[in-house]
Design the sequence.
């Protein structure tokens, strides 16, 4: 029996970053009470290979993939035509599309009416050939590969899913191949990989005359610097929110670009309002929109998922504020030929339909102690209300992979056993 272990340095990566995996193969020692029955012969593996690939699954009831977008890759054609032994690009039967749940990376169970295809993959790398291990002996191989920059991010939506897998394949002589699929989460700096943006960000880097040529920053480092500047700059904006009867609230947001794990902070000013607001709610929502040419129906609406939510009663408030945390597991804004993911703040305001000038009680301004004359003020039992909604678009960007890996506590170690009976 051979025990195979794959250890990732982290669970989250940026496109363009190098994935490093330690792959250890070990022939376990026999237990002390079974040494006499244990076979002391060495274990032999013919070869092992590794490859990273990204699969795309679509829900056929919502997505109509054009035929021009679903040709087989060269590696898939080799698998189909010649039945190549190592076939990591085959659609994983254990991890196809999962049609519900929040937008994130991961794998799920099979679903009827779902098709899959490979959208990007790296070249297979041979780790070793003819490996022999005595009982108690182990051998570690390092697999290093740069993630393709042009690939999509890890994403699990209502209609489209992108999932990255690192596949390690091993084979005994005259035996079937055993595949170990290691899921990884990949984020994409889609707006900051353009050469013009990166070259224009050189002034953001402090000059250091002692920095050697070998220590010059990579394009990925420059893109991360631009991301830091974009998400840290305050860009305060004010919005006057009104309905058909007048002014409801003045809303202020300090910036509209956030990284995963940050807090969205906003303030609301009711002091100049002439429409009493009873309560409000703010929800962070993702909008998954299929490209027009790929929609199953012409009037197909985008899929909306809700995440963090803030709710507050604001009767008599002059000012209020909210804090919405951005979850670490969600997918930042991105776009592909199939789908576009956008983010927004969804507001719901419950306002009174009574005119504050003619009603006997001002909801927006309860009476003071002098007006009560020793009595207890009580809000009305019934109030005619109406609800208005308003959406504000925002941008979500990736955060540092090390920060996300620690925050999510993602699994970074995976195991597989190869028995003499050719079962794992």
Sequence:
């Amino acid at each position: 029996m051979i025990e195979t272990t794959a250890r990732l340095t982290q669970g989250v990566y940026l496109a363009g970053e190098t994935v490093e995996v330690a792959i250890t193969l070990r022939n376990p020692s026999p237990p002390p009470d079974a040494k006499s029955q244990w076979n002391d012969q060495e274990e032999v593996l013919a070869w092992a290979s590794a490859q990273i690939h990204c699969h795309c699954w679509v829900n056929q009831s919502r997505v109509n993939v054009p035929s021009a977008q679903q040709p087989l890759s060269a590696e898939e054609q080799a698998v189909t035509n010649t039945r190549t032994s190592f076939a990591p690009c085959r659609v994983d039967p254990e991890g196809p599309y999962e049609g519900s749940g929040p937008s994130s990376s991961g794998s799920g169970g099979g679903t009827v009416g779902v098709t899959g295809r490979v959208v990007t993959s790296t070249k297979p790398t041979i780790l070793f050939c003819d490996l022999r291990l005595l009982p108690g002996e182990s051998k570690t191989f390092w697999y290093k590969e740069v993630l393709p920059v042009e690939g999509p991010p890890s994403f699990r939506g209502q209609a489209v899913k992108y999932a990255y897998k690192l596949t390690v394949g091993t084979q005994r002589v005259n035996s079937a191949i055993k595949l170990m699929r290691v899921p990884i989460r990949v984020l994409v700096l889609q707006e900051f990989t353009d050469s013009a943006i990166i070259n224009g960000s050189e002034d953001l880097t402090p000059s250091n005359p002692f920095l050697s040529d070998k220590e010059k920053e990579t394009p990925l480092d420059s893109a991360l610097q631009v991301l830091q500047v974009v998400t840290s700059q305050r860009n305060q904006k004010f919005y006057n929110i009104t309905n058909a009867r007048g002014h409801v609230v003045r809303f202020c947001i300090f910036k509209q670009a956030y990284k995963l794990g940050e807090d969205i902070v906003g303030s609301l000013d009711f002091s100049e309002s002439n429409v009493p607001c009873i309560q409000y709610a703010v929800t962070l929502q993702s909008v998954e929109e299929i490209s027009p040419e790929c929609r199953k129906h012409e009037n197909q609406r985008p899929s909306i998922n809700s995440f963090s939510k803030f709710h507050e009663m604001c009767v008599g408030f002059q000012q209020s504020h909210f804090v919405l945390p951005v979850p670490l597991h969600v997918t930042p804004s991105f776009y592909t030929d199939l789908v576009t993911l956008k983010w927004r703040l969804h507001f719901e305001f419950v306002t009174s339909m009574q005119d504050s000038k003619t009603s006997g009680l001002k909801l927006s301004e309860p009476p003071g102690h002098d007006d009560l004359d020793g009595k207890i003020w009580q809000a009305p039992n019934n109030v005619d209300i109406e609800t208005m909604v308003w959406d504000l678009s925002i941008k979500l960007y990736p955060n540092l992979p090390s920060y996300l890996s620690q925050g999510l506590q993602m699994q970074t170690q995976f195991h597989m056993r190869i028995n003499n009976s050719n079962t794992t």
Q: What stands out?
A: The mean pLDDT is 79.
